[in-house]
Amino acid sequence: MRLGLAAGPRPLRTRAGLIAGIPALAVAAACALAQAPPAGKGPAVVPFTMLPSNHMLVKAKINGKGPYRLIFDLGAPITLLGNRAGEGAGVIKPDAPRSFLMGMRGEAQVDKLEVGGLTATKLPVIVFDHPALKVLGDALGEPLDGIIGFTFFARYRTTIDYQKDEMTFEPVDFRIRDLMKELPDRLAGPREAARRVLAPRAVWGLRLGEPKGGVDSPGVPIREVLPGSPAAAAGLKPGDVMTTLGDRWTTTVADVFAAAGDAEPGKDARVVVLRDGKELALTVRPADGA
């Protein structure tokens, strides 16, 4: 291989989300794109109750039904409703199929959510019975109906007043990115191998060989040094094993190309090689390849 022939008013308090551990497909289903409500309608105040668990509880109407008891969780990546609330508010049909996993009913949409002085529309949710809600509801002695998370909070600039037990929501012009829906494909990896071309910005004048020993190789062998090149002027020789270029260790050919790409033409670059079993530091001034 040849190298160098071309060149806010109060910070939000967050906590660990109740929804940790939701399967990727479930999380993905709830993160369909949601357009933020138009800005300029003014802030809305929502009262909440701080539970002994330090979760914020609000009472909300869903599609005109309720009120339902919902947890406002700043760390939750999605918004979810339990099956009872989902069916009662008409978000899903009673005969919608259930998954064996937590009674999951899949992706749905709340047409209208009314909480305090705030009304939100077209809110994407998923419907299933998360075990954390049941555990927390049993501990409190009253059932909980869902968790409000990122797909709601991303629409607003939120201020929390813990002394008054109030949240203030001001609409912002923001469109929720569909990051979670891409998660399964990201985990599965690309269908085709990605290619990256590394090209140094300067001329060095040497050829590299493949390292021997894989990850245990001390560096990259120099197979040839071109006469009259910057590498030759610096004293590099065939048979040298390059271990460092600049501030980067070079254990693969890709390391050498990446490090060479950061070196500027006409400026000294420190190169460390192994020669006859001894470490030798040299200075190479790569030439302009333009």
Helix/strand/pairing category? alpha+beta
Name of the CATH homologous superfamily of the largest domain: Acid Proteases
Query: Briefly, what CATH class of the largest domain?
Result: Mainly Beta
The low-pLDDT segments are: 5-16, 21-40
N- to C-terminal separation? 20 Å
- Number of structurally distinct domains: 2
* Topology, number of strands: 19
Please give the largest β-sheet.
7 strands, antiparallel
What is the approximate shape?
A: elongated
Order of helices and strands: EHEEEEEHEEHEHEEHEEEHEEHEEE
Mean pLDDT: 78
Report what the structure shows.
The protein is α+β, with helices and mostly antiparallel strands and 290 residues long. The chain folds into two domains: 24-188, Acid Proteases (Cathepsin D, subunit A, domain 1); 202-288, Pdz3 Domain (Roll), CATH 2.30.42. Helix content is 17%, strand content 32%. The chain contains seven helices and 19 strands. It has helices at residues 24-30, 83-88, 131-140, 150-153, 183-188, 230-234, 253-262; strands spanning 2-3, 44-47, 49-50, 56-62, 65-72, 80-81, 106-115, 118-127, 146-148, 156-161, 166-171, 202-203, 206-208, 220-225, 241-245, 248-249, 269-275, 278-284, 287-288. Strands 1, 13, 14, 15, 16, 17 and 18 form a seven-stranded antiparallel beta sheet that branches. It has a six-stranded mixed β-barrel with strand order 4-5-9-6-8-7. Strands 2-11-10 form a three-stranded antiparallel beta sheet, with no helix packed on it. Strand 7 (106-115) and strand 8 (118-127) form a beta hairpin. It is elongated. The model is unreliable at 5-16 and 21-40 (pLDDT under 50).
